[in-house]
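Figure 3 (text version): structure tokens given as input.
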């Protein structure tokens, strides 16, 4: 078996894959690959698959599969797997970090101190305690966020089409109710035709004045222009995001110049522990996979 590692995984993974065959990362050898390992960087499109005559299995290290053309893989009889459970804690912790950084003014405090300023009176903080957190999507990652938010004394509500009940969050029937009640909204949705651009001016108008949005899911779930306008008007107090329309974002993205945006460069799944967990699951998949 020939296994191509196309994206960044834990450095121990090639050695662990030796039991299954030869592992390599040279893109010039793509045509040799029986198995392809990717994360979020590689895009397995129909055009990409044209150069993979031997490919039989794609393993996406992570949750979403929107960077894989599932239909094209199915037509070529290529199996597709992912590792949804591995990333839950890493992404949830980053979502909470963004949620904490904004009301605690951590970025402004750090930057101003580096500039020799002492903004003790100017930097007014607020607390997460007794605020309402709305989860758009309450699957594996959303559940881990709910667990951590409850530890901070937050009330957690959620809207998820696929759930009838939830152990840690009050489920609401409509997005509109979640928008109207939430002080913080954390997005945990896949990118689909239905979710693309759903956080737009129409949705934002239904939210509380001064709402804080957190996005560790997919950048294209938000309409960048509408969100930037809401940040400038103050309707949205702040936006904490790890995801963008593209990696890296277009220099012309309106969010890069909008006020009160805290950004990280798509590192939600990049914890050392998560990469080790992904490797564990990749090994388990290969042990069980038969063609």
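Below: residues designed for each position.
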């Amino acid at each position: 078996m020939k296994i191509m590692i196309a994206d960044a995984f834990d450095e121990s993974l090639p050695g662990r894959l030796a039991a299954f065959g030869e592992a390599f990362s040279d893109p010039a050898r793509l045509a040799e690959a029986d198995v392809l390992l990717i994360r979020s960087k590689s895009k397995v499109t129909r055009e990409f698959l044209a150069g993979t005559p031997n490919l039989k299995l794609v393993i996406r290290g992570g949750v979403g599969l929107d960077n894989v053309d599932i239909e094209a893989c199915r037509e070529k009889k290529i199996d597709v797997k992912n590792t949804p459970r591995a990333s839950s804690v890493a992404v949830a912790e980053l979502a909470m970090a963004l949620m904490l950084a904004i009301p605690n003014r951590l970025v402004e405090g750090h930057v101003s101190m580096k500039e020799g300023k002492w903004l003790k009176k100017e930097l007014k903080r607020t607390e997460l305690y007794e605020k309402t957190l709305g989860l758009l999507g309450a699957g594996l990652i959303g559940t881990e966020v709910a667990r951590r938010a409850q530890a901070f004394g937050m009330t957690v509500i959620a809207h998820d089409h696929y759930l009838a009940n939830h152990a840690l969050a009050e489920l609401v029937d409509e997005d509109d109710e979640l928008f109207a009640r939430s002080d913080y909204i954390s997005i945990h949705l896949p990118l689909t035709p239905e979710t693309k651009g759903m956080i737009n001016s129409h949705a934002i108008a239904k939210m509380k004045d001064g709402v804080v949005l957190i996005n560790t899911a997919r950048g294209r779930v938000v309409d960048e222009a509408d969100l930037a306008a809401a940040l400038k008007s103050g309707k949205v107090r702040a936006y904490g995001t790890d995801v963008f329309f593209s990696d890296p974002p277009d220099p012309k993205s309106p969010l890069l110049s909008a006020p009160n945006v805290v950004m990280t460069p798509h590192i939600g799944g990049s914890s050392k522990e998560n990469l080790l967990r992904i490797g564990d699951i990749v090994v388990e998949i290969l042990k069980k996979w038969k063609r």
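The two ends are 11 Å apart (CA to CA).
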